[in-house]
Amino acid sequence: MKILTGDHVKILIGKDKGRTGEVIKSFPKTGKVVVKGLNLFKKHLKSSKDQKGGIIEKERSLLSSKVILLCPGCQKPVRVAYTIDKAGHKLRICRKCKTPLTQNKK
């Protein structure tokens, strides 16, 4: 999966279409991401000893195919390309402006 935690993305499909946000969690095995403050749903909680009951809003995960990465350099939605630097590390780069994106965690 080419979208990692900490990336800024734009939502392509759904009720939040066109809005942007930061990825707070990614699930590579299922191909899903959670975007901060977007794709919210309301959950009704019953009160217990530890917490107060009520209605809270939570983020729901999105398929990674429904979001596109925003380049920090040119601020445009881009597809990710890969290159290998002099030290032998694999880097993600913007296909349009060729600026490096955040490094892989691997």
Description:
The chain is an all-beta fold. It has a domain at 8-46 and 55-78: Roll (SH3 type barrels). It is 0% helix and 43% strand. The protein has strands spanning 8-11, 20-27, 32-35, 40-45, 54-59, 62-63, 67-70, 77-78, 80-84, 90-94. The strands form three sheets. The protein has a six-stranded antiparallel beta sheet, with no helix packed on it. The chain has a two-stranded antiparallel ribbon with strand order 4-5.
The CATH top-level class label of the domain at 8-46 and 55-78: Mainly Beta
> What is the makeup of the main sheet?
6 strands, antiparallel
Beta-strand percent range: 35-45%
Q: Uncertain runs with pLDDT below 50, 5 residues or more?
A: none
Structural class: mainly beta
Mean pLDDT: 91
Shape: elongated
The strand line-up of the biggest sheet is 6-3-2-1-7-8
Assign the CATH topology of the domain at 8-46 and 55-78: SH3 type barrels
> What is the first-to-last residue Cα distance?
12 Å
- Helix percent reads under 10%
Question: Could you tell me the number of beta strands?
Answer: 10
Task: List the helices and strands in order.
Answer: EEEEEEEEEE
CATH hierarchy: architecture of the domain at 8-46 and 55-78 = Roll
Question: What's the tally of helices?
Answer: 0
Rg over CA atoms, rounded to whole Å, is 17 Å
